[in-house]
Every structure is written in structure tokens, then in C-alpha cells.
Design goal:
Layout: E1 10-11, E2 14-19, E3 22-23, H1 25-34, E4 36-40, H2 45-62, E5 68-70, E6 80-84, H3 91-99, H4 102-109, E7 116-125, E8 133-136, E9 144-145, E10 149-155, E11 166-168, E12 210-212, E13 220-224, E14 229-231, E15 241-249, E16 254-255
Parallel strand pairs: 1-12, 2-4
Antiparallel strand pairs: 2-3, 4-13, 5-6, 6-7, 7-15, 8-14, 9-16, 10-13, 10-15, 11-12, 11-14
Amino acid sequence: MRTEPGKSPRPLPAYQLLAPGKPGNDAIEAYEHDGVVWIKQAFGPSWIEMLAQGMEIAIEQGIGQDTAFSIAAPGEPGFFFYDTFMWQRIPQFRDFAFESDAADIARHVMRSRGLLFYFDFMLVKEPGTSRKTPWHYDEAYWPVRGEQICNLWTSLDSIPAETALRFVRGSHQWPETYRAVHFDPALRYDNLPDCPAPPDWENEPGNHEIVYAPMEPGDCLVFHSRTHHSAPGNRLGTPRRRALATHWIGDDITYRDKPQETDPPYRGENLKHGGSMECKTFPRVR
């Protein structure tokens, strides 16, 4: 399908788990073909309430600290907050990473025998926040090589089409390399490779298709580390848009000693180029 500039995105198909932590073959095949799969009701209300409590703690702790960032546009009433590695200091996030079904969902979707936990990342967009998440793919930021690494993105709120995450279907299979772009447009990473930033795919002509998922609390998206994605700002008069991304490392991933600045900046303990990512910072969970 040819996508014309400004063309509206299409909704993804939704899948249900066969059992707790176990997606069906149709969901796994959708992930492999599209680079993203939408799973409905992956996590029950108790997990969502627990994560909401953890986010309030993170926001309270993070204001003015180096571990968290608010990058709402100047003068806007809204609030755009993100934080990372919360599991190391906030019990709610640690419990989700190590006790919920997230690890099993990620392992099955990637067809991996074992699994490491990479890191967690939370995003909060209050109403009135126009700042969008720029088009990017995760692997550009990370010192990794391989295919079995994914983002499991869990919604804590109802997310309508207007503020839903967008993806370029099948872009995880593209050979082209793009550089990392900072979520704060005023900042830039150091020592970036000599390659372009991802274009604004929603306004870029070409043979690509934009898809999205209008999510409810407890839904999750699982997407490949090279799948291009973005999200609009939250201009609606609806409640905040809260999401937790947990990142998971499968069997074939090795450490890649990239010269450029990585995000998050942590590279683990005693990792060697071409070797395993397993260490205290990136622990084994399966």
C-alpha cells in the first residue's frame, strides 16, 4: 500500500492471551510480520493500580532529579514526564518486572528460551501537552546486536486513536539505519553515527503503512527493537496518558560496544563486545 503524506493511520488487529502469559500463534506471527502486536487485557486491574501507585512515587521523587525529565513545551498547562530504571528503587515496578506475566509474554512472542530484563521506562502525558514523541526505533539507542529484543508497552489509561502510539508496519525488517533522536528537541546525543534521523513517517511519501492501537488499561503492545514508532501529544481534554515500557532481551542478543552515547547510559558490569548482556544491571528472569 502506498501511504500519501498526512494519510490517516489504520488500527492494528487485537489479540487475546490463550492463558496468563501465553499468546497464541496468531499473535506471535503478527509480531514477526508487522514488528508489533496488540494484546488485549494482558494485565488485570490490580497490576494497573499497583503501577499507578509506583508512577506517583516516581514523579514525586523525580522532579528536579537527574533520573527523570519533564519536557513539556514552555507555557503549556500539560506535563510530559519520563523516568527509567524505576525497578531498582520502587517496589511496584520491581514486582511488575519479576512477578507479572510480562516476562512470559515477551519470551513467547520472541520465541526465546531464556530472558533477561533490560530496563523499564515510564511516560506520562497530561492533557494540554502538545509535545509529541518523535519517530524513532529503540535499537538505535542501545548497545546491542541481534533480533530477540522487544519493548512491552503497557497502558494504564484509555488511549484513544488521537493520542495512541503509531508504528510503521514491518519497519523492523528494513535494512536502512537511522540515528537516535532525543525526546527533547533542544538536546542531541554525542558521537552519533553518520546517518540520518528518521523522517516524519506520517508525512513522508512512500510504500509504508502507519498503524495504531486504541488501548484500554491493561492492554499491551509488544514491538521489535527496530520497529519505527511515535506518539502524538495529548491535546485532548481527557485524563493523562500513562504507560510503562519494559524491555526484554532474548537468546540471540549480544553486547555491542557502540562508540556513541547510549540511552539509557548504563552499560552493565564487565560486558564484552560480542558477549552476553547478562549482569547485575540486566538480570536473568527466565
